[in-house]
Amino acid sequence: ATTDSASSQYILTKSTAPGGESGTGSSSTVAVLSGNVAELDFDLTAFNKPRTVKGTAICSFSIYATTNVAQCKLQLRKWDGSSETEIANSYGITYVKRTGGVNTYGYAVDAIEVVVPPTIFKEGETLRVTLEQWGTSQNVPVTANWFIGHDPQSRATSGKEDLVSGAEGTFGTDPSISTVQLPIKLEV
Fold first, then answer.
1. Which helix (H) or strand (E) holds 90?
2. What is the mean pLDDT of each run of 10 residues along the chain (188 residues)?
3. Is the dihedral of CA 6, 127, 181, 76 positive or negative?
4. Are 76 and 127 within 8 A, CB to CB?
5. Torsion over CA: 35, 88, 95, 40 (sign)
6. Which pLDDT score, from 0 to 100, does residue 20 have?
7. N or C: which end of the chain has fewer CB within 10 A?
8. Domain 2-185 maps to which CATH number in 2.60.40, 3.30.1490, 2.60.120, 3.30.160?
């Protein structure tokens, strides 16, 4: 995914040109937090003619978390420029942090499959892939961080990258790329 320079919107692309960020993160200092901690929208460019999406879509991505439990949800939506209509969704694996202390960072790669019912996109409509990260923080008031990788070149991160104000994380040399495979029917 690359970032639209006019906004903080993410764009699905076949290009492997490096984006400005290796990923996106969030942070919380709430003693016990459970819920949606990050949501990212990745938009395909608008369809230039009607297309049908049908079959199994697969999204593969990297996450980092300092929480007890982390899980991601994949949503496929129709976006007309002003409103979203959900087509399908599915949850990934439930990731439990490695033991080793409050500030142990945990890395995981997940692939979520979602069955897409036959859906027709009109010319000008956009397919939006939304990735939500869900988490449960520690039982003590510590800073919990979440990070989703989406670097087209899967560049290594050095040290701890500043994700958001006060939130840090790193993939090191582990993959930081996200990929999406979409079942689009070709008309020949």
1. strand 84-96
2. 48 61 62 67 89 91 71 89 92 71 62 93 92 70 66 62 48 70 81
3. positive
4. yes
5. negative
6. 61
7. C
8. 2.60.120
